Predict the structure.
Amino acid sequence: MLEKIDLSKNIDKETYKKIKKEQSEKLGQLQRQCKEAGIPVMIVFEGMGASGKGTQINHLIQALDPRGFDVYANDKSTEEERMRPFLWRFFTKLPAHGRIAVFDRSWYRQVTMERFAGKIEEEDLPAAFHDIQSFERQLTDDGMVIIKLFLYISRQEQKKRFKKLDSSKETSWRVSKEDWKRNTEYDRFINICEEMLQNTDMDYAPWTIIEAEDKDFAAAKIMSCVAECLEDALNKKRLNVGTKDKDAPVRSESFQPGVLSGVDLTKSVTKEEYKKEIDRLQKKLEFLHSQIYRMRIPVVLGFEGWDAAGKGGAIRRLTSHLDPRGYKVYPTAAPNDIERVHHYLWRFWIHVPKAGHIAIFDRTWYGRVLVERVEGFCTESKWKQAYQEINEMENHMANAGAVVLKFWLHIDKDEQERRFKERQNNPLKQWKITEEDWRNREKWDQYESAVNEMLIRTSTTYAPWVVVEGNCKYYARVKVLKTVVEALEDKIKEVNNRT
């Protein structure tokens, strides 16, 4: 790709001034239209050292309303960022609908500069490319416009610019030993960039190569490219106005695969057995918590289940002996105004735990394929694509070393009714029961169908579902703790074996 680029392209000053004036006016108008249409935009600047990324970003944003964009300079990751999956720091910076985020270097640093420096193993590259592809596809499927610009200059031009920067005390700090090494081994770095471009040049997020030796030519091309992409996004948005995917239909196939129908809800333990076992497991978990903190192992636990199935009680027993500084419980309700203008996974990504910590989600990202599917809050195409998006998110967490477990607390309809009535009759528990809980019971069969499909399509080796027989609360709490203990022990053993 890069070897065919003509770096001699240039533009005269008068032509540049004319293009700049036209494109600046156009970009300002397009920014306002994208804001009105609720289109989020990410503009990524990558490329060679000294190719002028900072200068070109400054040229571009001069045409935009500063109240509508953010610029992120992504240098080496901080300690806080290194303790989370590498895409975390970018997912947390996603622009809201109608806003623009500009990235001076991005998630591509890992597969270019860090690869060159030997900070990523070659065997880990396929997974890294896959994570990047799925990240960008998820965002574009949700309506994000991703504009990727690679600024390209020759070895000779780069060397000349480095020397100029090095000659002044005011600018010498901008050239590092790593920069000079990449210039010395220019061909190796170019080959790394070539492979990155080839693996991530996708139709939903293509690369645009910017011939950057002539700065005016580069600026004119960048402004024109961004304007064209925004125009294209607006045209596509207009074409979709007035058309709407059908709401998710409720499937009632007679031979639909079932998981819940085979669950034995008669399983139970006595109160005495429960007390003895729960005490043993809680003490064991207390010890394991200190070990995963020391070994920097992150843990993600998700709880789903029927209303009144016992999620809260199981979480309380799970956390009772944990150091409160090392875990956090996140209850998930309907998205608020800020969450609604972001990708639906954004509000969960911002709570991904750092290494050595535990994040517990009381209801999770699976709302997209459960309540949103059954209640018609999203279209069929949206909840269908969510299975893959969720699997990819959990895979990325697991690739970063996390233990990921998901629990479905299962009870039968009669047991749920009994617990609902008990809550209604107990003044201390009445707050737990709402009209919506009773209304949801009317859609039990529809929810059961959705749960069956969810369990089948998203239970993976790296993030398995554990169905918990919950008619007996004692049995359910013991099973949850036992499962977590065994998973942590297995992970600790795996890490020790590697080291």
The first strand starts at residue 41 and ends at 47. Residues 404 and 463 are 5 Å apart (CA to CA). DSSP finds 20 helices and ten strands in the chain. The mean pLDDT is 93.
